[in-house]
Specification:
About 5% of the residues lie in helices and about 35% in strands. It has an 18-stranded parallel β-sheet that branches. The protein has a 10-stranded parallel β-sheet with strand order 9-15-17-20-23-27-30-33-36-38, with helices on one face. Strands 1-2-11-10 form a 4-stranded antiparallel β-sheet. The longest helix has 9 residues, at about 450-455. It is globular and about 65 Å long. The two termini are about 40 Å apart.
């Protein structure tokens, strides 16, 4: 795995061979080739430091393990006081625990409630292409699934696709997901990928996820019904047919906790909304994310319909009438950079981001304040109104980035509180942006109005009591890959979702699959 400013890229090894004092890692093809054709510096960085996983010789600390895929043996270095004779062993096998999938827009799955359930220990073995595996992307929670031109905007992201979540929903209406837990997942937690309408998501705990805790929409939703349309390059490769593709809308997402997210795929935001209409995201808590806490919108300025955009004269509106209100964000952007506790992209009419509480973003390991913001208004973001947010961050960081980040504007920020006085990470502000009555409180001694925002943010007391009863473990911040000693391979003790709880000294376990009845 290699790391860039806001992303990581994973490739897999086919074989090793010794050449003198050097060990040559022959990568699995074709995925490793795919991973080297990304743009914006996100390609697999084979000339820089790599983080290397699953090396038997480096199995030297309690809690680490090594899996011998050839012999089907798992070696485990036991933690203190673990008893192998009474240990519970969980070996995940399902990539999706629940998959709710209607036929099309005229035949949706509808009116189903899930309440008080736990969905745990899902699996994922990375993207598979012709027997090779890896996980590469330019940004966000989608993964590269095919070889294509480096400019992913011109392709309208047709070489990318969503990954499995423990709970997946598509072509559905009237689904309620209340007071459940989704945890220890091999990739994403809850995914509403396409055409989900009138859904209630309330009081859930989604935590310890390898990828994003919750995903809504697909990045190919820039234009709806565009398969074989000739819009952009490779429209024949569009995932959805015209009778099945639709933006998710009318979602009420309240009183949930999203915690310890993106434990393996650091570049995944804690929660990501690629495309959504008429959403209320309110009284939620997002905590412990290596990258941005919440990402809203997709498409940059490249889909605004201007003469130099991908589709001139045809602006794409993937988000509108969404409300991000009364949420709390703690300990976001702990590992990567160039993000925000809240991050936005693309035009999004009638969007409100107000009365949120943002606390403690970034870490001492991230030295470039230029790349950290409380709220990052990135390329193409327009028509956002934000009022009375309280942003308690390092004063070196920008509280709300209203800088000139590529053809955006007409955003208004009124009466926001922050320990930082900076509203830009560029030399100029974006034309059309209004910053009205900003309030800087460098010592975080808030007045009654700001304190009322803090007190009202996040899930209510009854929800917090239930979340506390789950005993959600505090996850340590993920360490970024050091860049001070080039060409020195590293290994980490990988806390895989669904990890094994064993005991004793290093033990070998023979892993066998049972035959399934027809």
């Amino acid at each position: 795995m290699t790391q860039t400013r806001w992303n990581t890229t994973i490739v897999c090894v086919e074989s090793l061979e010794k050449k003198g004092f050097t060990t040559v890692a022959n990568l699995q093809m074709p995925y490793a080739a795919f991973a080297q054709q990304l743009g914006w510096g996100n390609e697999y960085q084979f000339k820089k430091n790599n983080m290397i996983f699953n090396v038997f010789e480096w199995l030297d600390e309690a809690g680490e393990f090594y899996f011998d895929k050839t012999e089907h043996k798992l070696y485990y270095f036991a933690r203190k006081n673990e008893d192998l004779n009474s240990a519970q062993v969980i070996a995940p096998e399902l990539e999706k625990i629940i998959d709710i999938q209607g036929r099309n827009k005229e035949n949706r799955v509808h009116d189903i409630s899930f309440e008080g359930l736990t969905f745990a220990h899902s699996d994922w073995n990375l993207c598979e292409v012709d027997g090779s595996h890896g996980r590469a992307t330019n940004q966000g929670a989608m993964s590269l699934k095919a070889f294509a031109e480096q400019d992913w905007h011109g392709n309208i992201y047709r070489e990318y696709d969503s990954n499995p979540a423990a709970v997946c929903v598509s072509s559905a209406s009237g689904i309620s997901f209340v007071n459940n837990s989704v945890c220890h997942t091999g990739n994403d937690g809850l995914a509403l990928v396409n055409d989900v309408q009138n859904m209630v998501i309330d009081g859930n705990a989604i935590y310890d996820t390898a990828g994003t805790a919750m995903l809504v929409g697909h990045i190919q939703h820039e234009y709806i019904g565009d398969k074989d349309s000739g819009i952009g390059r490779h429209s024949e490769k569009e995932r959805y047919d015209a009778d099945t593709e639709a933006i998710c809308e009318n979602l009420n997402i309240t009183n949930n906790i999203f915690k310890n997210t993106s434990r393996l795929f650091w570049g995944n935001p804690g929660v990501i909304f690629h495309a959504v209409y008429n959403m209320n995201f309110q009284y939620n808590q997002i905590e412990n994310t290596p990258y941005s806490g919440l990402s809203l919108g997709w498409g940059w300025w490249n889909f605004n319909g201007s003469p130099d955009s991908v589709v001139p004269g045809k602006a794409a509106i993937v988000c509108k009438n969404n409300k991000i209100l009364n949420n709390s964000f703690f300990n976001c952007i702990t590992t990567l950079g160039d993000g925000g506790a809240i991050y936005t992209l693309s035009e999004m009419p009638d969007t409100v981001i107000s009365e949120n509480y943002i606390k403690s973003i970034g870490t001492d390991g991230i030295k470039a304040a230029y790349h950290i913001r409380g709220i990052h208004i990135d390329e193409g973001t327009k028509y956002v109104y934000g009022e009375r947010n309280v942003i308690d961050i390092n004063p070196e960081f920008a509280c709300i980035d209203c800088g000139d980040w590529g053809n955006k504007g007409e955003n208004t920020w009124k009466h926001n509180y922050s320990t930082s006085s900076s509203y830009t990470t560029t030399e100029t502000y974006e034309s059309g942006t209004q910053i009205i009555e900003p309030i800087t409180v460098s010592d975080a001694k808030w007045n009654d109005d700001a304190q009322s925002v803090i007190d009202n943010a996040g899930p209510g007391d009854e929800y917090q009591a239930r979340f506390k009863s789950l005993n959600i473990a505090e996850a340590e911040n993920i360490s970024s890959i050091p860049d001070t000693k080039p060409n020195i391979p590293l290994i980490v003790g990988l806390a895989v979702a669904g990890a094994l709880a064993l005991s004793g000294v290093i033990a070998a376990i023979v892993v066998k699959r049972k035959k399934k009845n027809k």
